[in-house]
Amino acid sequence: MALAYPPFKSCPCGSGRSYAHCCGPAHDGSRPAASPEILMRARYSAYALRNAAFVLDTWHPDTRPARLHLEDGTKYTGLTVHSAENEEVVFTATLRQSGETLRIHERSAFTRLAGRWVYVDEIIPPTVD
After folding, report:
1. CA-to-CA distance for 87 and 25, rounded, in angstroms?
2. Alpha helices in 8-128 (DSSP H)
3. Burial of 115 (0-12, 13-18, 19+ CB in 10 A)
4. Of 23, 36, 70, 125, which residue is most buried, by most CB within 10 angstroms?
5. In Å, what is the CA distance from 63 to each residue of 22, 42, 80, 102, 120?
6. 90: region left, alpha or beta (phi > 0 left; psi from -120 to 50 alpha)
7. Ordered domains of the chain (ranges, CATH)
8. List of residues 6+ apart from 52 with CB closer than 8 A
9. % of the chain surpassing 90 pLDDT
10. pLDDT on residue 8
């Protein structure tokens, strides 16, 4: 179940904007992500807010898992987008899980499907520090 998140708080994606002016509109469907980077940020925020429905809905059907279980004990603590070019985004997501801080580095591929951006898969498998 997705967590309720106050629209006036800073967006979990780390953009510095309020959730209502950043990832919130993508999550509620009122403004689809306009680029792969914006979708990456919205997906990160969805993970942080345990919004599995959004994550699955923005995943290409050819690579999407049947189910997605987001751990209650995982806290997403930061996102750094290193580059966003063409249909690829390179990022580092930081999270705390079972008392450990993990950094996940990934190069992700995105494509347009039915007029909207969707996540396809990682190009370079994620590494965890």
Report:
1. 21
2. 24-28, 36-48, 52-57
3. exposed
4. 23
5. 26, 19, 24, 25, 6
6. beta
7. 19-128 (3.10.450.50)
8. 2, 46, 68, 69, 70
9. 84
10. 82
